[in-house]
């Protein structure tokens, strides 16, 4: 009997969390006003070089994310003057919970709940409060040449992003941040996880081009510009990235 009561209580909690997440998502993607987005830096490797990089962070490093979203939103007819408003929040010193290593649905669900609870506890107090919280874990590229996966949670409007603590990498960091930001808004990946190559046609910025390759731009949720059969490169900045029609539909800029 106690076990049944515990399971029933857990299901009630999950249903309540799911309902709140749905309401938050609908409100956020209504695009009636600017969505407040907080960039929250975290020292991902504990290095002194990373700490020094974080101390030098400035809001101006992330302005191009605002400009990218505004440019693409207006291209799809969204009239909100500034669709997102990015702010740089104070550093958080504690690392977020690590995602599960396997792909089990239960483990993923439990981690999602843990992550949202952790984010609620560790979001710095700012005014206005952010609607989307992106915890960016910076790493010294001299110590970590390859970073783990970044994650954007639509349920909870939270992202955990791994980025390089290097000024020359700022532009590509912003591509990764923009990609995960759009995940929180409901966008899906447009690349093959086995090869990391963009999927045709949704992962191509201009699938109608003849010849199809090379492409001139990258679709943000594909993350790379297809240049030749079996070959694609990450673009140098958000100036060479677009939001495709399927992604625009997923984040409610277009009607399905």
Note the main attributes of this structure:
9 strands, alpha/beta, 2 domains, two-stranded parallel sheet, 256 residues
What does this structure look like?
- 34% of the residues are buried.
- The termini are far apart.
- Helices cover 34% and strands 17% of the residues.
- A hairpin with a 4-residue loop joins β4 (151-153) and β5.
- The strands form 3 sheets. The chain has a 5-stranded mixed beta sheet, with helices on both faces. The protein has a two-stranded parallel sheet with strand order 6-9.
- It has 2 domains: 2-186, no CATH class; 189-256, no CATH class.
- The protein has 6 helices and 9 strands; from the N terminus they run αβααβαβββαββββα.
- With 256 residues, it is of the alpha/beta class.
State the end-to-end distance.
Answer: 46 Å
Total DSSP helices:
6
Class based on secondary structure composition and strand pairing: alpha/beta
Beta strand %: 15-25%
Q: Domain count, please report it.
A: 2
- As laid out across the biggest beta sheet, the strand order is 2-1-3-5-4
General shape = globular
Assign a percent range to the helix content: 25-40%
How can the largest sheet be summarized?
A: 5 strands, mixed
Oligomer: single chain
What is the arithmetic mean of pLDDT? 91
- Say how many strands there are: 9
Radius of gyration: 19 Å
Give the helices and strands as they follow along the chain. HEHHEHEEEHEEEEH
Stretches where pLDDT falls below 50 for ≥5 residues?
none
